[in-house]
Every structure is written in structure tokens, then in C-alpha cells.
Amino acid sequence: MQEGKAVIEDTDMPLKILAQALASASRALDLYEVFDCIAFAAYIKKDFDKMHGPGWQCVDSVVGTNFSCFFNHFKGTFIYFALETLNFLIFKGISSNSTSS
Length: 101
Fold this sequence. Notes:
Helices cover 33% and strands 24% of the residues. It is of the alpha+beta class. A four-stranded antiparallel β-sheet has the order 1-3-4-2, with helices on one face. Strand 3 and strand 4 form a beta hairpin. The radius of gyration is 13 Å and the shape is globular.
């Protein structure tokens, strides 16, 4: 497992799910090359879909690159954090017609 410590920028996840997000990202770092962002995101999305049902989304980027997003999510399913040289955004999406956090 990677030795780097995660820096959580923002979250509304319960601690148990938050720990699973960090563990999933750490496993992805062990399995894939650092610049294989698609593989990272796919691994984490599939991991969370298995653990918590379908609808999870994952966005990652290499530190130093920029991205912006706007989304609706179920309350208690959002986290944005940095681990090693990557930033991760994980959330369970909902339609814009539903109530969100």
C-alpha cells in the first residue's frame, strides 16, 4: 500500500465510507501507474458500486492540472481529497430533479 497520507479537502461522508474511499484510492495507486487516471477512476467507481450500489462517480486528476465540475449528489456521499500526486472526487450522483445536498 502507498505510504502517502490523504489530505481531505471537503466531505460529507460518514467516517466508515470515508475510510473505504481512502482505502479504495490507495489500492488503485498500488495497482495502476500514476498517470493512468482512467483506470484509477474506473477501479474506484466499480469498487463503490459493489459496496454501496450503483450510481457512484469518480473523477481524478494529477496535481497541477485543473478541472471544474457541477453536480448533484446524495447527502453523505461526497468526498474530495488528495493522495500522493492525485486529487480524487467521489460521489453518488442523483438527477437534478431530486433533492440534493
